[in-house]
Each structure stands twice: as structure tokens, then as C-alpha cells.
Amino acid sequence: YVALTSGTASGRRIDEWLPPGLDSLAGKVWVLSLVLTVVLAALPSRRPSRRDVCLLCCLLPLACGSVRMVAWWLLVSAPILASRITALWPRLAEDDTREQVPSRGAAVACGGLFLAAILSLPWLERLNPVMALPGRAHRTESDLQAVAERLGAEGRGGRVFTRLAWGEYLGWSLAPRYTVFMDGRIEIFPDDVWAEYGAVTRGRADWEEVLAGYGVNCLVLDAEGYHHHLLPQVRRSPRWREAFRQGNAVLFVRQEAGADQQVDAR
After folding, report:
1. What is the pTM of this model?
2. CB 69 within 8 A of CB 62
3. What is the mean pLDDT of residues 96-101?
4. Would you report the helix, strand and coil content of the chain in percent, each value rounded to 5?
5. Alpha carbon 34 to chain centroid distance?
6. Based on the number of CB atoms within 10 Å of its own CB, is 131 exposed (0-12), middle (13-18) or buried (19 or more)?
């Protein structure tokens, strides 16, 4: 199952299954950890244990082949790097034999962590100063929730086409009245369905025929750039009406036969 899923995802060029590169934060962190590992291993100190070498050798090829595996590489390499650093600077590993007593600094640190955890709750995000930073205030989850509520209120049901990353949430929130054209369970979708999904996403000339063949009557498109080829064509088509928009999520519904073709500008 793992081989089938990873092979299919890599062959379909899904980002998290591609090799890490310097164009992403995960790739930069991975390269930095790899350089640090090589440098610390080359410095004169005690030799790494067989266990450490085996762990690094097992996880390194996986991390080289997939962004998804970088997290596992970091989890394994962090304690190994820490042990190498303490081997180079023994004072960092010295245990303090004095009696441990509470201090104001420790209390302030624990209080700060507790406050950060509380302010991270969804209900208190408006009070979180971090959310006021540029790019932090907008949440895609809120956009999708608003679209799902709008579709749920209409209650007519049907099939939804959206981007792969949004499929699971919409499939969960709209069930059972709506089904999703495709979601992130890529191992269950054959290649021809994936090819048609890509054709619609790219706005190929027959995108409407593909959607009609699957009975799609709702589109939830990403206005931020993911659907930059498809979105202009949908807006120009008389068969689709913009029914709702929240943030970057734009909802289009298929016009019924004989319905007004005027685009709703709400």
C-alpha cells in the first residue's frame, strides 16, 4: 500500500511527494540539517554509534525522495545532532547536581507557554497578536466553512469540483448530499480520472464536457492562483453563475435549463 501510494503520488507530481528543493521552507530546513550533520560528523570527536549511522542511512534516502519524509528525518536527526554537539562541547552535557528549586524565570516561561496555547484556540484567535501579523489573519478553513454552509443551506445536493487539497474537508462537511469529484485519496483514483482532473484544473478546451460527464453542478475554485487558468473561463461561460465568495474560495453553480444567465455579482 505504501509503495503504491508513494509511487502514484510521485508519478502525478504531487508536491509533498516530490524531492525537497530550495524553493520551499521544508527543503531549506532539510538542506541545513544535512549540512550540519555532515559538518558535525567530520569534526574530531567520538565516533557516531552504529545505531545513529543506521538511523541516518535509513531515513536519508527517504528524505531525499519526498518532502513528506523530511519531518521524519528531522525527528531522527535532532537527537543525534544534539549528542554530537555535546560530544564537542562537554560542558553542555554536564548535569547540575545542585538542588533544583522553582524560579521566577521558570514560572514566567511556563506562564508564557500556557498563554500562547490558550490564545491559539480558534475562539480566541482575534486576541492573538501573532494573528495580526501580515499574512496571518486570513484562514482558508474559514472560507471553506462559509462555502460549505452556503451549499448546505441550499440543500439541493450534487457533485462538487474543487482543488485536491480542499476535497477532504468539503467531502466531510457536505456529506451525504454532495460528493466531491476527487480528493486526496489518490491511490483509489485511476490514472484516467486524474488526467481529467488535471485537464479541468488547467482549463483545457473540453473542461465543461468533462464536468458534465461526471454530473458536476458546483465548482469551488481557488482565486488565489491555483485555478488561474480555469477561473477566467468559468466566468465567461454562460453555463455557470457565481453564487458566493468568501476570501479565496469562489462558489459557482451550474445554470439550470432556462434560468437567467445573468451572473450574480454577489
Report:
1. 0.68
2. yes
3. 60
4. 60, 10, 35
5. 24
6. middle
